[in-house]
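Table S2 (text version). Query chain:
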Amino acid sequence: MAARVGMGFDVHAFSDDAARRLVLGGVELAGARGLAGHSDADVVAHAAADALLGAVGLGDLGDHFPDTEPVWADADSMQLLARVVEQVRAGGWRPANVDCTVVLEAPRLGPHRAAMQERLTAVVGAPVSVKATTAERLGFIGRGEGVACWAVALVEA
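Corresponding structure-token output:
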């Protein structure tokens, strides 16, 4: 059995648009300030997709869904992730697992983690774990200006 590993990263600033929703791991966090971005700015779905793409050598999310294309404006990132999974499988690979670490000061992700993992696992077709940590009030994340996510994916042939 062949196996490959990929790493993904995404970061978005918080939006000044009061109507912008915060979506992380396919779950809307009601009442929280949303992230700025061309799509729905779901950093967790984006990092997971980049990790899967990297594992199979298919470039990155921007190669497949460029922010210069109006068709991807306000796109549901879980649908983008589903398309990435289709490409991974079309190449003869299958996701084995994805591990995500979200870095943000607020809101707290604990109450939403199980729902995020469930949504992501359903789309990826393999276990997806989500962990959260803070930046200990350091840098732009620590000042509450944005959210980042790192992800690692294992795929098998």
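Notes on Table S2: The chain has a mean pLDDT of 96. Residues 6 and 64 are 16 Å apart (CA to CA).
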